[in-house]
Design a protein that fits this description.
By secondary structure, the protein is an all-alpha fold. The chain has 3 helices and no strands.
């Protein structure tokens, strides 16, 4: 699922920098900004996961927290793959 986003009142110098970065990567400004937004959303998602784990397990080390997030992601990926298989059968 995708949504639409319109951004107004962007500083012209910031816009020029983003356009140059997109051009240097051989992509459109829209795709470049979409990728930036996705990266930021993933960081926020991970912060929320770490906060949830820290609240549930306050004595857990950062290394163990990362392992827990990876395990949660792997479970989600496995569930997504199973749903994809059942939808396409």
């Amino acid at each position: 699922m995708t949504g639409k986003l319109t951004i107004r009142d962007v500083d012209e110098s910031d816009l020029d920098i983003l356009k140059t970065a997109a051009r240097n990567q051989g992509t459109s400004l829209n795709r470049y900004v979409t990728a930036l937004l996705h990266e930021q959303a993933q960081r926020e998602h991970h912060r929320a996961l770490f906060a949830r784990i820290a609240a549930q397990e306050p004595d857990m080390s950062p290394v163990d927290s990362v392992a827990e997030v990876r395990a949660m992601r792997d479970e989600q990926d496995a569930g997504d793959a199973e749903q994809h298989r059942s939808t396409n059968s």
